[in-house]
Write a structure and sequence with these properties.
By secondary structure, the chain is of the alpha+beta class. Helices cover about 40% and strands about 20% of the residues. A six-stranded antiparallel beta sheet has the order 2-1-3-4-5-6, covered by helices on one side. The chain has a three-stranded antiparallel beta sheet with strand order 7-8-9. The radius of gyration is 21 Å and the shape is globular.
Length: about 280
Amino acid sequence: MILKRLTILNYRNIATAELEFSPKVNCFVGHNGEGKTNILDAIHFLSLTKSTANSIDSMNVRHGEEMMMVQGVYDLNGIEEEISIGMKLHQKKHVKRNKKEYKRLTEHIGLLPLIIASPNDTVIITGGSEERRRLMDVVISQYDSDYMNALTAYNKALQQRNAMLKAEDEPNEEIMAVFEEIMAQNGEAIYRKRNAFIEEFIPVFQHFYQLISNGNETVSLNYLSHCQRGPLLDIIRRDRMKDRIVGYSLHGIHKDDLEMTLDGFPIKKEGSQGQNRSEE
């Protein structure tokens, strides 16, 4: 995959920009605040339909403007593909491939695989479990569309179950049971795919860290999930009354975590800044 041309209109601090890229290495040079990072963010937006900085799409519209658009022309195995994302302020975005709009955004994820490295990546180690789940989700969803579909279905059921848990009226048990079954079915599928990814990734992770540390330290990953305690449906239903008291779902794959260890100890607690940078 090669990005040939990029057109930006009113994306973050960029009013207009048209760039053509080399098929080899490209570098951006400029003063602070001129938009170098935002160009990279626009490329990320085209690949994953999300900004790395703002989870709310309308926040990516340039201040004082009513709409934004990002368009990229790619060479995908010798075939030219045009991807564009446009939106008006406070309205939903429109993602198009060769001027034809996708019916579902999940159809697009994985077409343009992308990895971004950022100074903020240490949050994967120092931040909460949601950062490490996001890492797994972003990687797996780019090569497995079934994973993305399962994650979408799970999150919708989770939101609906949480809404019922927060309601003043007692939840309808039959409807609650349906949401729990959807969560369990998709959650176990997500668990299996996450677990397979981690098992395959650990040797790669260890190999590159060994190169960096000259073999002086050993690292590993421990995947932690409620699915490891037994059938997920039983685990979710078992604490329904406790969930009702707190107003949200305490168990499920939305609580999964990825523990990174250094010589057998959690690096989040034991690692120096330099060691955290190396693991990142």
